[in-house]
Design brief:
Helix content: 55-70%
Structural class: mainly alpha
Number of strands: 0
Order of helices and strands: HHHHHHHHHH
Distance between the termini: 56 Å
Radius of gyration: 26 Å
Shape: globular
């Protein structure tokens, strides 16, 4: 049953003719919503994306660099927006990782030899983790942090693992996202003189890291053997192939940049992981 019978748009008030308002684009013949329409909207907009999702994913996974090259060439409407793609796959990856109950941050106690007993070293004889001056500064300037570290040190291995796991899932998505501008900065420095703008490097970073989320999620459930080895080889070759396709450098020019990019991003990633674990320890209750 229609709920609009005149020629006035219910959204903006413009006089209309036809099925859509020429001012705001809303439909002119409205009716009470139905469950089937809600399902159609969900499937069409969030799953099918008018066919864009499947074309985007297939190019992302099996044609390194093509998605970035297509976007830079101006063919954008047919693909999912880069940031939306990255965020969606990031959410799915961390959900899959948490659901798999993978031990991403655990403290494994070292087993003692048979018949051996744990020896407790008096506190005054234990080696200092930080020098006394630094410890006094921490206690004076950041008493909350010092207290959190002391509390963490007194936990058993199971509790420490739980704290670190919670910190990882709470802060890692933000840390990885904040690494994207840094990843793009490394690309900018490695490709100085090519005329590429920073935003183009950021686009490449979003696409390649979206690919990494998919493959890491797949690795979790792949059995050991040929399939996992083949997937690992594909991941190893994906980035230099994508770099060569997007930046149009020669074989050796791409390889040395790929190696250096791996080293720089590895350092950035290690720092981010340490920061995530530290935040998890500090924010633990």
């Amino acid at each position: 049953m229609d709920i609009a019978t005149d020629n006035t748009c219910r959204n903006c008030g413009a006089t209309t003719s036809g099925n859509f308002c020429h001012m705001c684009g809303q439909e002119t013949h409205l009716h009470a919503p139905s469950f089937s329409e809600f399902m159609h909207e969900f499937i069409g907009h969030y799953v099918a994306l008018e066919g864009r999702l499947w074309g985007t994913i297939s190019r992302l996974l099996f044609r390194p660099g093509v998605l970035t090259a297509e976007y830079l060439a101006g063919r954008r409407k047919r693909y999912v927006e880069p940031l939306r793609l990255y965020l969606s796959l990031s959410i799915i990856f961390f959900a899959v990782l948490k659901f798999s109950d993978a031990g991403v941050a655990t403290v494994d106690p070292r087993p003692l030899p048979p018949g051996a007993t744990q020896q407790v070293v008096p506190a005054k004889e234990q080696p200092a983790i930080v020098n006394e001056r630094l410890q006094r500064v921490l206690e004076k300037e950041t008493p909350g942090i010092s207290h959190s570290i002391d509390r963490f040190d007194k936990m058993d291995d199971r509790e420490k693992s739980a704290v670190m796991q919670a910190g990882f899932y709470k802060y890692a998505p933000y840390a990885i996202f904040l690494l994207m501008p840094i990843f793009a900065l490394w690309l900018k420095l490695l490709y100085l003189g090519t005329g590429k703008k920073y935003g183009e490097h950021m686009l490449f970073a979003l696409h390649t890291n979206a690919f990494a989320f998919v493959m890491l999620g797949v690795f979790i459930y792949l059995p050991d053997g040929f399939l996992k080895f083949a997937a690992l080889c594909w991941v190893a070759g994906y980035l230099p192939w994508a770099m060569q396709r997007v930046y149009r450098k020669g074989k050796w020019g791409t390889i040395w940049r790929w190696v250096l990019l791996g080293v720089l991003h590895g350092i950035s990633l290690a720092i981010a992981i340490v920061a995530v674990m530290g935040l998890g320890i500090i924010s633990a209750h």
